Amino acid sequence: MTESTGRDPDVLTTAELATKLGLSAQTVRRMANAGQIPALKTGKDFRYSWEAVRQVLRQPHHQPGVPADDPTDQQPTEQPAESTRKGAGYRAQRRARTGAQQPAD
């Protein structure tokens, strides 16, 4: 069943984006506040462009402190134990890269 709300289907609420990415709404808000994903602040919440979020999350991860466009951006040979953990941002990036979609109701 198609819902006709009169809004652009590319524009998602925090809850809708969280569902698409398989994350909690709180994690999506944290990512937006940290500037990790593009978001438009609407009052107390955010709105997100699905295509803009997918583009950002499809970008290769770069090392902190190294500009993203630096051609010498390479993985260090030894990584501290903390940097080997993969968090919610990593999972969201994988889902965006693979085009993971939620099943239609």
Structure commentary:
Helix content is 35%, strand content 10%. With 105 residues, the protein is of the alpha+beta class. It has a domain at 9-61 and 88-98: Arc Repressor Mutant, subunit A, CATH 1.10.10.10. The chain has a 3-stranded antiparallel β-sheet. A hairpin with a 2-residue loop joins β2 and β3. The model has no long low-confidence stretch (mean pLDDT 76).
Give a quick set of tags describing it.
105 residues, 35% helix, alpha+beta, single chain, Arc Repressor Mutant, subunit A, 3 strands
Strand content is: 5-15%
First and last CA, distance: 7 Å
Q: At CATH's second level, what is the architecture of the domain at 9-61 and 88-98?
A: Orthogonal Bundle
Average pLDDT, rounded to a whole number, is: 76
Q: What is the topological layout?
A:
Elements: E1 11-13, H1 14-21, H2 25-33, E2 40-42, E3 45-49, H3 50-58, H4 88-98
Antiparallel strand pairs: 1-3, 2-3
Helix pairs in contact: 1-2, 3-4
Condensed summary:
The protein is α+β, with helices and mostly antiparallel strands and 105 residues long.
